Amino acid sequence: MVRLVGYDTEKEKIGICYDGKLLWRELSDLQHWDRWLHSHLKKLGRNFERIPTKRLKKLVQNSWSMDEVTEGKRPEMTKSIAVCNKWLSSLIELLPGEEAQSFLNDEIYMNKKEATVARLKAQKAAKDYGQFFSSTSSIEKVCECLQKLYSAQEIESSVFLEPSCGDGRFFQHIQSIRGQKIIAMEIDASVAGLARKSAVGLSNLSVEITIADFLSSSRQIDTESNLIVVGNPPFSNSHNPHDDIAYQFIQHCAVEWCANTIAFILPDRCLKPDYTAKVLADLNLHGHEWKLAESVHEPQSSFDFLGTKKIQKPSVIQIYHRFQ
Ligand SMILES: C[S@@+](CC[C@H](N)C(=O)[O-])C[C@H]1O[C@@H](n2cnc3c(N)ncnc32)[C@H](O)[C@@H]1O
């Protein structure tokens, strides 16, 4: 036997009595299981009478208890409680065992809630940091562009820098065009851990990974080496959406790291002539002559998010190169 026994506005939870036990659940839990059961039964060709949303919403406007209702202090609620109890009973009756336990067993319910909160937090952090990883085809195009610009010997004697290396998926491609050394940075320690795994077994490429904010870093190699920057910088800064973090990465590579070449996968807004003109004008303020050596539009490109989702986003591969 299951029935509603109250609502607490402070907890924002509905009291439910099930088999003599008091459970506190959120309105969103009831809505979740309503949706879940509806689509589960639909696949089996069966119907399920949907949640009485309007009545349930009336029951969560103020705190109340069943004692008040039985004492006749809340006559306006009696009908809504009866309708919601009918729906709740059929929900519990029709939910399969494991799903019913997720709703009714406090320990399982709490564990699942915590897991969901942790997953959403990780998802938000991944989004805030712009963890959209490049596709193999885009990385291969970056490498092809570099091979047009440099001979094999020049690539071998250069140092590579990947300022926001993500899970390290560029490394093996740099090894395959005969790069010998790459310095990589990543702000998120857990993602840097994935990059470390990607570096294992790359016997011809020396990989140094640092957990750091690239925008606060400075050049860590001798002044003689030719420095080629590769990667896919975060496209925007969620903390300040007006900040163009991709632009800041380009400037930091040129000014602080004295890069010779910056080969980036960028959002396709960077294709606009005004944008590239501004980037070049600012790069050229520091006594060197920079040119845009390549600009390859990738209207169909996609990025991997959290290892599970493919996000379609047009991009452009741009190679800024210093000629002096
Ligand atoms: C768009 S992903 C690209 C990853 C990888 N370069 C690729 O092409 O797949 C950007 C990465 O930069 C990291 N990141 C964001 N801000 C950063 C910063 N200020 N310094 C270093 N890494 C940063 C994010 O955590 C994310 O892993």
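^ S-adenosylmethionine complex. The chain has a mean pLDDT of 94. The chain has twelve helices and 14 strands.
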